[in-house]
């Protein structure tokens, strides 16, 4: 049985795709996961998604599709989590190239479907921002999801749209998504997380971390991102829903507008016009700010002192959990210091590690 899973937004969606592969299909024959190489600036300091020209060691699958093996390497200064994912997980990771717009991704999908002759094609989004209209004030990253939705809806092959953990991406609240969701496909459990446990120890995706944590039973309020956005961890967190992709396309103004795009510049322009912004512009702005800030030395004693104040403030806001990305940015540390921070906290307060999240202490 051959399966293709399209990770709608890349990043954590690729990790979730591996989780879903085992949960839905048993993982006997690992799926091919088609995903973006688009990591947070903590990992990749270059704004926007990477294309095939940004890697060495890719392997040709079809004329337009390359796979990312464990020995592939991003060309500096770019970074990517995909080679390490390929080294630790049994799935095959193939690269979405958005630089030729929606038409280019349709071409990739047509080629890979013809090559694989899959039994199924799933389009997976963690959080549900793929169900956005485009004008929601909390929407932050519509571009990648709109591109994959547009392309999948143009594919002459049945595609099932799956949304896992509504609201966990911190964009559209779960209550807003309620009437946009379809039937329940399954509820993830701790056993479904096990195959990706090692990946969750280092992967920076906050949405994937919260998806896994809720599947393991975590409940509460998790603070994420540099802004400290609170995301509820509820019984709905580990649930996977099926949604009609045509209904999603009819709602998603950006996805409809970009159906005929031939390059990423056109997609960005439509995003600016319809959503009021392009997340790649946001990344460009952040790169400028990050470049102007001096690197802070990692001082374990100072970090542990700051942790006490951070947790006291978090408790006052009702926060029960946070991510290591949030802690890294709250303490003014660089992305390359995130693992140092994690190791320090796990060694000093191991009882607060509710994998892969950090549980806020109860206080005195």
Describe the structure.
- With 364 residues, the chain is of the alpha/beta class.
- The chain has two domains: 3-188 and 238-257, no CATH class; 300-359.
- Helix content is 40%, strand content 16%.
- It contains 15 helices and 16 strands.
- The chain starts with a strand and ends in a 5-residue tail after the last strand.
- The mean pLDDT is 95.
Q: Residue-averaged pLDDT, rounded?
A: 95
Helix content: 25-40%
Rg from Cα: 20 Å
Q: How would you sum up the global shape?
A: globular
Uncertain stretches of 5 or more adjacent residues:
none
Strand residues, percent: 15-25%
How many individual β-strands? 16
Overall structural class, as computed from helix and strand content, comes to alpha/beta
Quaternary assembly = single chain
Topology record:
Elements (H helix, E strand, L loop, with lengths): L2 E5 L4 H14 L6 E4 L19 E2 L2 E2 L5 E2 L5 E2 L7 H7 L3 E4 L5 H16 L3 E7 L16 H12 L5 E5 L9 H4 L6 E4 L2 H4 L3 H4 L5 H10 L4 E5 L4 E5 L5 E5 L1 H7 L1 H5 L6 H12 L3 H14 L7 H17 L4 E2 L1 H7 L7 H11 L4 E2 L2 E3 L5
Parallel strand pairs: 1-2, 1-8, 2-7, 8-9, 11-14
Antiparallel strand pairs: 3-6, 4-5, 9-13, 10-13, 11-12, 14-16, 15-16
Helix pairs in contact: 1-8, 3-4, 4-9, 14-15
